[in-house]
Known about the structure:
Layout: E1 8-17, H1 40-57, E2 79-84, H2 91-103, E3 111-113, E4 119-121, H3 123-126, E5 132-135, H4 150-160, H5 163-176, H6 193-206, H7 208-213, H8 218-233, H9 245-262, E6 270-275, H10 278-287, H11 289-292, E7 305-312, E8 320-326, E9 335-337, E10 346-347, H12 348-355, H13 363-369, H14 378-391, H15 398-423, H16 435-439, H17 447-450, E11 460-463
Parallel strand pairs: 1-6, 2-5, 2-6
Antiparallel strand pairs: 1-7, 3-4, 5-11, 7-8, 8-9, 8-10
Helix pairs in contact: 1-2, 6-8, 9-10, 14-15
Amino acid sequence: MSQDTDNQILGVVLLVRHGDRQGLYQNPDTYTATGTVITPLGNQEEFMLGSYLRSLYLNQSSPSYLPGMSTGLFNPAQVFIQADAGDEGGVIYDSCVSLTQGLWPATLSNNVTLANGTTITAPLGGYQYVPIDAVDPNLSTQLEGFTNCNTFDTHTTDFYQSSVFQEMAAQSAPFLDSLPPYLNGRSVQLENMWNIFDFMNVNNIHNATFAEALPPTYMAQVQALANWHEYNVFSDRSIGGIGNIAGTAILPSILSGFANIMKSTNPVPLSITAISYKPFISLFNMTGVASANPSLAGIVNYASAVALELRQPSGGGEPVIRFNFKNGTSDATFVTYDFLNITGDVPLSAFIDAMAPVAVNTTANWCSVCANTQDMPCSALALATAQGEAAARPKISSAGAGVLGAGLTLAVVILMGITLAFLGLMTIVHTQRHLKYVIRACEDEDAEECKKKPRNNAAIGRKGVV
């Protein structure tokens, strides 16, 4: 495929899946997950991925070196890092810690000289403690748009009841009926395909007795069924359909990353978001990558990464996006894919025009799309709305109502605005369709506020790396 090999990279938005972990159970209907823990293999996979990304983007001799990026000590002004702190327990966050160890390894330069002349180096040979924003899905919907989403649950139920699903269930029944000896009592219904795959995959990696007893073709057959299952659950025929909620919810983070890169002052060239496999499936569906590459229509491997590189063409004009993907350890390096039915790099404005209209930009937007008024943070929003409506219905005469109506409406709007701002329910990021609005998203704001980088601050708890 054709790309401008002489263009200049401006920045990159990275989406990274966690590394190897112990087993995980997900409810087949709601995808509510139990906790699990990362393994040393998972830590190593993420560290190696971080080292690869360092050689690509933080190496001055690399053609993809991010201009001006610090190659030694971590500079928090140049990077934004967030990790899903809910799905799969602490695995995603812990994976992100290992990723940052590879990107910013220990260095003796991480030291301080005291007043008495003594030089103290950070522990572990100059270990760099890189801050990561831990996103709690109970407070922010950006990284787990599917959690507690009632309309998504209905979408999943409808899929299970569809003729397509019933046909696949009948077709796969003989194979599934042969699996009980390898499932330790787990259901062999097609609805449970994710849990069948995960149990067998984890044991195939970590249990030598299991791996030796498993027939040679079984793991590939199980993964193929799991890929089909998960792709149909986390995708949709319509780009903004509810099946793509994992993708539409994460779009504001991606668009914020591009806006950060394009800021005229204090740009942030590197954005990293650590997530589960689900947003990958939705994004591959939404961008057309999966339809053009059927092998990617499914569960991405551990330590997979998408790199959305923002580049400036050598001939001038607006920036373009290059879609790179590395499917875990299966790929030694990034592979570049066409997307949005465009050959080669895609203009930033084309990406914005396609994606911004379907982005779930606010908590209120998500609560509406998911028909949720009960769970946090939707319950707080519903309460604020109810209180505002009650305040707008004072018990006064009809004559008085005409006089006070306008004033009360204004007061209610102001009250609700203050309440929503306090609860962190206002707009996450501007995602207007036109390029100029996204590029200027932070230019007109107060300089100190811009330094915070776009995020839902009320919904994200910062955790130090331990």
